[in-house]
Amino acid sequence: MRNVFFYFFFAALAILAAGDSWDKVRELKSGAELRIYKKGSRQPVLAKMDQATGEKLIIVLKDEQTSIEKEDIDRIDARPPQSGSRIVKETKTTTTSPEHTVAPHERARNSPSPGTSTSSSVTIGSRPDFETVYRRVPAPKK
């Protein structure tokens, strides 16, 4: 009798967890990048989030809107939409005084002037990682 109680207890927890994770899918913002793993498929579908209803996920593939039934989805990984640019531009200018650039015995011959050097760099930042937001809970074994 005790084992039956634990079985139903853990089954109820699994159902609650599944409901919570689909709520996470419904809370995703439009435009978030998704990796959708469908039942029986090895490769994920890469798409943009449009919206999620109680029983289906509406996505954008390239320029086409389509939907996938919740029961056909094993797992969904999401990456938040990009805010701002990942490109960082930086310019550094360094000015050196003449005393440090010319040897003391050459100062009399040359009229020393300050030296400047400028360097620029461009850095492309990485995108955030995908995070699993939904995982279908297998049906309890009877």
Summary of the model, kept short:
With about 140 residues, the protein is α+β, with helices and mostly antiparallel strands.
CATH fold-type name of the largest domain: SH3 type barrels
Highest-level CATH class of the largest domain: Mainly Beta
Percentage of residues assigned to helices: 10-25%
The H-and-E topology, N to C, reads as HEEEEEEHEE
Describe this protein's structure.
The protein has about 140 residues and is of the alpha+beta class. It folds into two domains: about 1-80 and about 125-135, Roll (SH3 type barrels); about 85-125, no CATH class. The protein has helices at about 1-25, 100, and strands at about 35-40, 45-50, 55-60, 65-70, 75-80, 85-95, 115-125, 130-135. The strands form two sheets. It has a six-stranded antiparallel β-sheet with strand order 4-3-2-1-5-8, covered by helices on one side. A two-stranded antiparallel sheet has the order 6-7. A hairpin with a 2-residue loop joins strand 3 (about 55-60) and strand 4 (about 65-70). The longest helix is centred in the N-terminal third of the chain and has 26 residues, at about 1-25. The radius of gyration is 29 Å and the shape is elongated. The relative contact order is 0.18. Residues about 5-20 have low confidence and may be disordered.
